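Researcher: For the record, we're logging two predictions in this thread. I'll number them. Prediction 1 follows.
Model: Prediction 1, sequence and structure:
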Amino acid sequence: MSSQALDATQAAMNTDDAPDNLTSEGQLSMTLHTMNTRPCFCPKSFCFALVMSCAVITAGAAHPAAAPKPVPTYADVSYGPHTNQLLDIYLPSKSTEFCPVLLWFGGIWKPAKHAPDPGRFLSAGCAVVAVETRTLTDGMTEKANPPVSFVMNDACRAVQFIRLNAAKWNLNPERIAVGGSSQGALPALYVACAGERADPKSSDPVERVSTKVVCAGAHRSQPSIDPKRMQEWVPGVQWGAPALGCSFEESLKRREELLPLISRWSPDALLNKNAPPIYFENNWGLTRPETVRETDYKVHSPAWGLGFQKLAQQAGVTCYVKYPDHPTEKYKDIWDFFVQQLKSAAP
């Protein structure tokens, strides 16, 4: 295996932005195809090349090429004046009813929108909306206090915009869920925990619409911007800067001063009895796998979800946490949770 192919494979396996349906087997197949399998006249080399060719053919047969990703029904729909306030909307092709909808948030450091395999939801009669928001960088540039407020306000606005325009896309405005993976889970959890953000007196019709959702899901997530609490949950972790407008080290030193901002913008601080059901899923257990870097593991440890779950239980909020060897009742995984919650009858 060439060093370039190995490096490319490792990069694909370590990136947060890789598609959630890219498996290690798929990466292996991709890597094998990048290798030089040209036969030569040396018997040993020829045998090696023949073996590698068979490996490629076998891998291809066992793991056929993935189907093309669904194309958004409506792409780059603007939900606000900023260039990063964009939506991709995926609608079921044969729906005769108003569809429940999942809003899935992308990056908070770099503008991005990632839809979690829309096929698994479209086949169940649920729509998917991939949401791009303004970023922490945008917040720092425009001196927002704190920068994370740009991300959180946009998350609420995306829910309000979809609800206001639900009839246009045959969506059910009463069956809206929010979610995200890694950094994208933070705005989803904010929407779920912040309570009603509608402003009936606003001159903007979008802002007058409700921000309430039926549930929230967090995949490999970090549900807090409180530097002290996150280190209580995951000792040694450093994450989230410049959400509060400064480095992590500075936010830890200035925590008492920053508490009003933490109380207003951190999902764990906002959690209350009126929050909807919340589901956490992690692909690693409570022990770091040897192949995973320590910094990566700390940022994506299930200990975050377990810490949040304790707060949820104290507040009387239903909260599930799934990770290897720790299944959840009623739901196979986060995707099953979303579909069941969205398709269930409104209370």
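Researcher: Logged. Prediction 2.
Model: Prediction 2, sequence and structure:
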Amino acid sequence: MSYDILTNMLSQDCALKFNEDVYFDNDRISKILKEIKIKSSKPYLSYELVEAESNQTPLIGKIKYQDKKIVSVVLESINNVSRYRVDLSYDGTNYKGFQKQPHNTTIQDTLEKCLTHLCQETILIHPASRTDAHVHALHQVIHFDTSSSISKETLIKQLNYMLPRDIRAISIENVPQVFHARYDTIKKTYQYILTKETNPLKAHYTHYIHDFNKEKALSILNTVIGTHDFKNFSKSQENINTTRTIQQVKIIEQPSKYIIEITGDGFLRHMVRMLIGHLLYELTHQKNTFKEALNNPLKAHRKYLAPPQALYLKTIAYK
């Protein structure tokens, strides 16, 4: 791929990350790319994986496109470590969420302790999603770097041996140095399970609801499909872009439960639980609060947070 082709395809809001430096000005990006020699490229997941060179320094990179325009370029000097992708699942009942916290047991802390022992060096993991306390994952993805020579076959066997029974590695694979478990995702699906019965054996995995109008619930939830500002459906955080795109909403009825599925390009903190919380409040109190909160993101609204134990991270998609 030539320099002229690259620069002519840059979108107006293109971003370039070159090692630790980030650039947003197209003129500056063009000057940097002029010094880069692209040696090879191939499709990988949702982007183009490239091998390049700058001043005789070997580089690896990825180029992301949208509407035939380049929206981001990542270039890194090739290092001597291996990057692994781990797909896993877990029961979140006994954990205070995914992210590491002082004095609390979390999924991240548990995984890092095991991987650090196996690789004989400090391991830091990066997840596709940071689930809340007591939230479960049918499919979560992490990546980490290591200079250890341990094989992926040995790693998954020993990792599952060391992990508690409520966390399991499904697969482990070597991935390119520029793969990122979080930033390479193109969509995620969450499930929320409402049970029709008060079964104490399901208390940590479902949320009981006495009366549920499936047709009305689906009609309410369908209003979130598309691109919206979800400020009223997320935990308050400053300087955070609260616009997200929801691609699909489903409600699956089974004999003893309803499964609500929401698929989007990304989710804010507490966003799914607040969508469900608002939904259940409106169904129970017969008030039109959901659409009002969605259509008026700059107006403060009361927020309703559904319990965490019925929420599941179902799938992470990269292509």
